[in-house]
Structure formats: C-alpha cells, structure tokens
C-alpha cells in the first residue's frame, strides 16, 4: 500500500509503513520526506509463508512496540491490510491505545468455500481453521472494518464472521493514475510491434494460481477463434521466482491448449515487470479476468484505466460496480462458451470496443484512484473524530505488520503483486 501512504503524505500526514525484516533487508528505508519503511524481525531471518506467519506475529509486535515507545512516536491511528497484518495492527493498537482500521482484502472463509480440492489438503496448505478464527478476533476488535466491495461487505456480515453492518465501510482498492492511463490508437499499434504481438489480442495476466481460472479462459477461446480469424490469447502468468508447483501448472495450461487444438494461437509470456505492465494493457484489445473467485480484480481496473475494454468474472466483487455494456462486460467463467462469445463481441464490433474504452477509463479515474481511496479513508477518520494533525500521523500498510499514521503490511510473497 505504498501508493496509499504516498497519497496520505501529500494530504499532510507523516506515514510509517511497518513490516517484517528478513533476508538482509535494511531496518529503515526512506521513501519520501513524509513516508518511511520500518522493518522489525520475527521468526528468524528467512522467508515465512503467509499461511504460518501468524505464529511469529507476537514477537514482531513486541519489537515494533519497543521501537515506538523508545522513540516516543505519537500515532493517530493504525491502518492494517490482510489478516496477518490485522493481528499485528490490533495488538499494537491495543498497546498504544489508538484506533485501528483494518482492510481484509482476502477473506479466509470465502476463499475456503470457493476453492476446489480435497478439504483436508486445502486445510494443510492454507491453514484455514486457524486463519478464520484469528480473522474473527480482528474483525470483532478493530474500530472500523473496510470492505473493498459490497459483496465482501455481505460476506463479512454473515456466515463465519457476523460483523455488525454499521462497523463496515466500503472503500475499493486503488490504482496509480500516473502510470495507468489511455494512449492514442497509433501508440497502441506501436506498442504491439515493440512487444511482438500480432492480431487482435485478449490479455490475461497475474500470478499462477488455480483460482485465477486460466484453464477456463483457454476453454473460452474456441468460440473466439472461430469468430475472429486473427484473434490471439496472451497469457502472462507466473512470478519472479517460479516454484515447482507454478512451473507444473503452466505446463498443464500448455498441454490443455494442445488438447483444445489452439496452441498455435496462445502466446505464453513470463512474469511482466512493473515498468512494462501498463504497455501490455495498452497493447491488448481486450483484458480478460476469468477468476473462479476474485475478491476485487485490480488488474481489470488497471486495464480499464489504460483504455482497454475488460471482460470480467461474475465470481467476484468488481462486476457489481460497473455498468454492463458501457464500462465493462462480464460473464461467468464457469460457462466458457458464454465467456468466449462476450470477449469475441468486443473484438468484432468497434462501437462496442470504443464505448467500453472511453467509459471504462472514466469509471476507473472516477472511482478507483489512490487519491480517491485516501480521501475516503480520511472521511472515515473524520467520522470517528480522530486528530489529523501533521505531527500526529504515521501509518501501518501491507507486507506483515506496518505503524506513526501506522500502516501494517503482510509478509510479501515472492511473486508479482497482481490482484
């Protein structure tokens, strides 16, 4: 949540992003005059998977609290992201006697209920029982719970969590509008040449995970390829350091493309560095978000912001926030034939494409910029009657714990940070 921290800094706050220190990282890092990263050790020097990082958080809280106390930092509030950071943020808020605002982003109970596979194997991998129990504690004890979509709000008020509705505020995630914005058609054509992309291209990108539905998207391509002669699918999936499991899943996708008889029209690309991400969005004719489940879908918002029409999954939160046919199109990825025909419609009809490009980018700028998110967060603070002076705020953001507004972060994964 570096972008959110920078926006809050521009609005007059001083922000500390508190996170875990591991693998030789520096203890302190200055981001700008008003934003710094403070790292505190816990659980040893190596990388710890986020599913089990929770066991080391008490040690982290002790180290962070000692630093805050020794430096006599005056903290106005803590803003934490993801469940492990929520544990850290709530503990710090309790010790410091300050408010805690928590944003779950991903919800354990919903993720468990929407994942395919053997329940016991999933439990071994994702530690769901412990996670849901700890999430319940954080949701009960934090002062404000931020849902990123209306759908997520409904999940939090029912089922495993039963959060009082008046405790929840709906604030979407944000994107950097200085990086993601539309360009001319001529520039888009030049980008296609530079990125070695031919024909009319449907783009999907992100980390390699089954819930992303890339196999469903491959099955959806057959009606597209029948209707659009020069259509191509570009799959840019993976991470900076692919694991054996990731590599195996990518090979399975390639094999599926062979079995479907479409391998020659599917372009497999590796992890896309951040500096090239916007250009890939702009070079595409359609962006496809085909997830089996997706708490929000920030990649689709970034694509829309770049003026690229988006076809998004109905198995998530974003589709309810767009106007169908004007700002984006959506379809059920579990019905690949239908999903494919929707994508083909954008490729075949310029008027549809142009309308989605225009109004999709407008919707992104209106609703989802980080500046807008920061302003919505500050309105929540004002409603709580918290102090908001220049000297009183440092913040906690996402990577394990973050906190002086205190931003608390979860442990960063060794993969591209797609939504």
Separation, N- and C-terminal Cα atoms: 12 Å
CATH class membership of the largest domain = Alpha Beta
Spatial strand sequence of the major β-sheet? 2-3-1-14-4-5-6-7
Helix content: 40-55%
Rg from Cα: 22 Å
Q: How many strands appear in the DSSP assignment?
A: 14
**How many helical stretches?**
15
Largest beta-sheet details: 8 strands, mixed
Order of helices and strands: HEEEHEHEHHHEHEHEHEHEHEHEEHHHE
Question: Gist?
Answer:
It contains 15 helices and 14 strands. With 419 residues, the chain is α/β, with parallel strands linked by helices. It folds into 2 domains: 2-174 and 369-408, Rossmann fold (3-Layer(aba) Sandwich); 185-365, 3-Layer(aba) Sandwich (Rossmann fold), CATH 3.40.50.2000.
What can you see in these coordinates?
This protein has 419 residues and is an alpha/beta fold. It has 2 domains: 2-174 and 369-408, Glycogen Phosphorylase B (Rossmann fold, 3-Layer(aba) Sandwich); 185-365, Rossmann fold, CATH 3.40.50. Helix content is 42%, strand content 15%. It has helices spanning 2-10, 57-70, 83-96, 108-113, 119-126, 128-141, 150-156, 185-194, 214-227, 244-260, 274-283, 298-305, 336-348, 350-367, 370-383, and strands at 15-21, 28-30, 35-41, 78-81, 100-103, 144-147, 168-170, 200-206, 231-237, 266-269, 286-289, 310-313, 329-331, 406-408. Strands 2-3-1-14-4-5-6-7 form an 8-stranded mixed beta sheet. Strand 2 and strand 3 (35-41) form a beta hairpin. It is globular and about 65 Å long. The two termini are 12 Å apart. Residues 386-404 and 411-419 have low confidence and may be disordered.
């Amino acid at each position: 949540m570096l972008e959110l921290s920078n926006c809050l800094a521009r609005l007059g706050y001083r922000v500390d992003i508190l996170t875990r220190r591991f693998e030789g990282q520096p203890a302190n890092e200055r981001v700008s005059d008003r934003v710094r990263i403070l790292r505190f050790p816990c659980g040893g020097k190596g990388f710890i998977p986020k599913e089990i990082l929770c066991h080391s958080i008490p040690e982290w809280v002790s180290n962070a609290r000692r630093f805050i106390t020794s430096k006599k930092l005056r903290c106005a509030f803590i803003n934490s992201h993801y469940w492990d950071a929520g544990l850290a943020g709530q503990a710090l808020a309790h010790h410091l006697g300050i408010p805690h605002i928590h944003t779950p982003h991903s919800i354990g109970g919903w993720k468990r209920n929407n994942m395919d596979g053997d329940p016991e194997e999933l439990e071994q991998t994702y530690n769901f029982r412990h996670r849901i129990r700890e999430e319940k504690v954080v949701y009960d004890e934090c002062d404000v719970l931020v849902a990123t979509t209306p759908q997520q709000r409904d999940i939090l008020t029912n089922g495993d969590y039963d959060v009082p509705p008046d405790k929840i505020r709906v604030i979407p995630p944000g994107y950097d509008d200085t990086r993601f914005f539309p360009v001319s058609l001529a520039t888009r054509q030049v980008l296609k040449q530079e990125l070695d992309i031919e024909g009319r291209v449907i783009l999907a990108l992100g980390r390699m995970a089954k819930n992303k539905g890339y196999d469903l998207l491959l099955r959806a391509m057959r009606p597209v390829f029948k209707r659009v002669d020069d259509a191509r699918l570009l799959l840019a999936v993976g991470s900076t350091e692919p694991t054996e499991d990731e590599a195996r899943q990518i090979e399975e996708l390639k094999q599926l493309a062979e079995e479907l008889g479409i391998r020659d029209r599917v372009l497999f690309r590796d992890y896309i560095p951040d500096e090239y991400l916007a250009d890939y969005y702009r070079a595409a004719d359609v962006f496809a978000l085909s997830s089996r489940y997706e708490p929000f879908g920030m990649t689709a918002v970034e694509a829309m912001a770049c003026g690229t029409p988006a076809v998004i999954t109905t198995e998530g939160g974003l589709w309810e926030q767009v106007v169908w046919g004007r700002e984006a199109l959506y379809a059920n990825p579990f019905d690949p034939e239908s999903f494919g025909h929707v994508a083909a419609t954008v490729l075949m009809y310029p008027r549809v494409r142009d309308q989605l490009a225009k109004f999709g980018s407008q919707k992104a700028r209106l609703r989802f910029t980080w500046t807008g998110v920061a302003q919505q967060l500050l309105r929540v603070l004002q409603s709580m009657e918290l102090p908001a002076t220049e000297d009183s705020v440092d913040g906690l953001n996402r990577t394990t714990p973050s906190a002086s507004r205190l931003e608390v972060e979860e442990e960063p994964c060794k993969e591209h940070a797609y939504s």
